[in-house]
Amino acid sequence: MTPRFLTVLLEAKFRRKESSGLDVRQSQTSLRNAARLTCPCPAMSVMSLVMRGTRRLVHADPALFSNFLFPALFCRAGSADSLLTCQPNRKFTFKHVKGQKKDQKTQKVKPKVYKQEVEIRQGMTAAALAAAMNKDFDHVLEALLNTSVDLDSLEKDTVLEERWIKEVVTRSGMKFRWAKLSTSREQPNKDACRRPPADPNLLVPRPPVVTIMGHVDHGKTTLLDSLRKSQIVSTEAGGITQHIGAFLVQLPTGEKITFLDTPGHAAFSSMRARGANATDIVILVVAADDGVMNQTVESIEHARRAKVPMIVAVNKCDKPQADPQRVKQELLAHDVVCEEFGGDVQAIHISALKGDNLLALAEATVALAEVLELKAEAAGPVEGLVIESRTDKGKGPVTTAIVQRGTLKRGCVLVAGKSWAKVRFLFDENGCAVREAGPSTAVEVVGWKELPSAGETILEVESEQRAREVVEWRSHDEEQQKLQEEQIAIEQKQKLHLEEYRREREGLSHLSWRQRKVALYRANKTRFATRPSERMQSDQLSLPLIIKGDVDGSVEAILNILDSYDAQQQCELEVVHFGIGDINENDVNMAEMFGGSIYGFNVAASRGIEQLAARKGIPLRLHSVIYKLVDQLKEELSSKLPPLVSENITGEASVVAMFDVTVGKKKVPVAGCRVQKGQLDRRFRFRLIRGRDTVWEGSLAALKHHKDDVQTVRAGMECGLSADADVNFRAGDVIVCFEEVEAPQVTSWDPGF
After folding, report:
1. How far apart are CA 286 and CA 43, in angstroms?
2. Which of 40, 172, 184, 572 has its CA 20 to 30 A from that of 63?
3. pLDDT of 185-240, one tens digit each?
4. Four-residue CA torsion sign, 129, 135, 137, 139
5. Which of 466, 378, 379 is nearest to 422 (CA)?
6. Are 329 and 314 within 8 A, CB to CB?
7. Residue 412 backbone phi and psi in degrees, to 5
8. Rounded to 5°, angle at Cα 523 from 522 and 525
9. Which residues are bridge partners to 399 per DSSP?
């Protein structure tokens, strides 16, 4: 309200009161006081005058001014007494002083808008983006209107670019965040397990599983041939067993025994261990003429570790040099005490080749089986053990298994390791199809999706879906274990790198950052200057290998042999691939890629594969005997090594005088020498020795006797010689002539056989 407006208002009020006959003097006084507002007063502020005049007018007519003035100027309308005591509002009389903040107007606080958070990732489809936003596909189409995206060709499975994913989320009034690269999700344990022990009332007697073990060439397979009346030895390469075999033998007395024939060669230790774990009784075959050998001791340890009772079969007792008593005494050193020495181990003297005393061995086996009271449950889901696995051309993946519990039939769904099968066929050891196999029976199982490893446990599950769940969970569990191992390796590598980094920085701590940078650049100059491809190249010799075998156990045996390789400082040995089956084109291509060799054991290669390997220069080495394969591998490793250079000293001469000979425009120093030992040959290398130091080593430029160029100078003769370099000869120097002889280097790896 301006002073001018207030004056006009008071004049109008004065006329109204004059016409109504009220006190004109009082109104004129109020008017004069209000008129003072129009002229400034230097003594007091204008606002103070306004407030003072207003109070006087309020006393005259409070109802009038209550409609125009602020309510805070008076307490209650119509109460004069209250107005006199009402405190004035100092807000209008406040004077701003320098240094004080002005009152800020209260700003309205906008309410916080909540935005939905959408998790996005690279390569999202339109349907996946809509699901992440809790919207439908049409919402994505609407958000992409008026953009360069071709909406006509946009489908639910169309992969959107990163910018359009962000654009859709932003236009929808939401905010986005990138999904984590790896999320640790714990999957429930869906593995298949063995059943709890069965009720003893449900158990039925079963045939014993007997493993024949011993040293190589002690007659294990011959013994089994005599028991089965077959000729397995004649079909084996090299006359030695290189696979684990399972056979059911029916004795003349009617009892049935399942025999496992294990290899005796040192390369097949894992096969012997697997046979010991799957057996009830171990027959330890020891030749009476050889006695206890290395693999005999190893077989004893396998049987003791598996807690399996033993029967000692002293074989080859028909030979003149046989000494069964010496064999029993040697066994005492390995805690194998026979019955005649007060122990509990039966020892039977036999001749497997002639069939002598085999019935006594069978009776001893049956008697021990009766003492053990071997029983099993014939009903319920099947449990077994994979003895051997191989790939057959007509049957596909085939496993030799021993049923330990239940009855295996066609149509059963089995799980072994990370493979599963729906049994299509069952075959016995003679290749005849059988309908079912009970406990302690060895059968070949056909129907595996993938080839399981030997030694895996076989479990029967309810359905194919359940089998897939078990295999997926086992694969996931193995992957998690590998990730943990890799994480530990990464952390150790980072720790070593950090320690190395700190050691490098300790020596530079006293330097400024600029000096430190220069020092690090100089130290790493050669490393940074090298190209990444050149950095990957190494002078270290290496031999990449591709291993193929007929069965899983053979490949396992070869890999175990290669694990014992300890000559990495000479030549690195790396297995880039291994598998089961014949050599194929992929093996040849992989060998060409890595520059390696292919080794096959008891497998074949077609003529086309052989021609392809020859055309690409890939060594293809096929063997049927394990130790011949290892011998050729050692030869190839030795051929990779550089030859050993040795020195053969042929002559020695002493320098008598020195003189210079002009050849063209150049003076060549010549040493006059007398040959002391042997002869000097110009074709060989020479060494100049002064005192105990070697001053020069190289070849001769000329060798003369008197004025003639000669090839050799013998002892007692004098000659003049000049070196192929600038050499300062002195009297008394010794010149040695030597021949460098190269000898092939042999690898230091010894596999033990």
Report:
1. 136
2. 40
3. 567 778 888 888 888 888 888 888 888 888 877 777 788 778 776 434 444 444 44
4. negative
5. 466
6. no
7. -70, 145
8. 60
9. 389, 445
State the amino acid at position 468 in one-letter form. Answer: R
Based on DSSP, count helices (H) and strands (E) in the chain, helices before strands.
21, 31
Q: CA 413, CA 421: separation in Å to the nearest integer?
A: 6
Spacing of C-alpha 205 from chain mean position:
46
CA 593 to chain CA mean position, Å: 22
Distance of alpha carbon 227 from alpha carbon 283, whole angstroms: 13
What is the mean pLDDT of the segment spanning 665-681? 89
Kindly report whether the global pTM for this prediction surpasses the value 0.70. Answer: no
Torsion of CA 199, 201, 203, 205, to 10 degrees: 160
Distance in Å from the first CA to the final CA of the chain: 119
Residue 378: phi and psi, rounded to 5, are -90, -15
Closest CA to 703 of 665, 666, 737, 728: 737
Task: Report residue 737 CA to chain centroid gap.
Answer: 56
Mention every residue, 6+ apart, whose C-beta is less than 8 A from residue 472. 190
Q: Which of 140, 142, 360 is nearest to 253 (CA)?
A: 360
For every residue of 207-220, which 3-state class applies, written as one string?
Answer: CCEEEEEECCCCCH
Q: Is residue 28's pLDDT more than 60?
A: no
DSSP state of 278: T
Cα–Cα distances in angstroms (integers) from residue 710 to residues 659, 682, 731, in the given order: 19, 8, 23
Q: CA-based angle 575:581:582, to the nearest 5?
A: 95
Asked if 346 and 311 touch (Cβ cutoff 8 Å), the reply is yes
Residues 6+ apart with CB under 8 A from 745: 570, 638, 641, 642, 643, 644
Beta bridge partners of 681: 712
Host H or E run for residue 65? helix 62-65
Question: In angstroms, what CA-CA distances link 372 with 206, 211, 307?
Answer: 11, 16, 13
Q: How far, CA to CA in Å, does 431 sit from each of 258, 400, 443, 586?
A: 16, 12, 9, 31
Q: How far apart are CA 540 and CA 538, in angstroms?
A: 5
Angle at the Cα of 385 (from 384 to 387), degrees rounded to 5? 140
Report d(CA 700, CA 372) in Å as an integer.
86
Rounded-to-integer distance, Cα 444 and Cα 425, Å: 8
Phi/psi region, residue 342 (left: phi>0; alpha: psi -120 to 50; beta: rest), is: left
What confidence tier does 65 reach under pLDDT thresholds 50, 70, 90?
Answer: low
Contact 368, 311 (CB under 8 A): yes
Q: Look at the block and give the residue holding tokens 């060439």.
A: 217
Show the tokens assigned to 477: 């569990």
- Residue with the two structure tokens 């175990």: 560
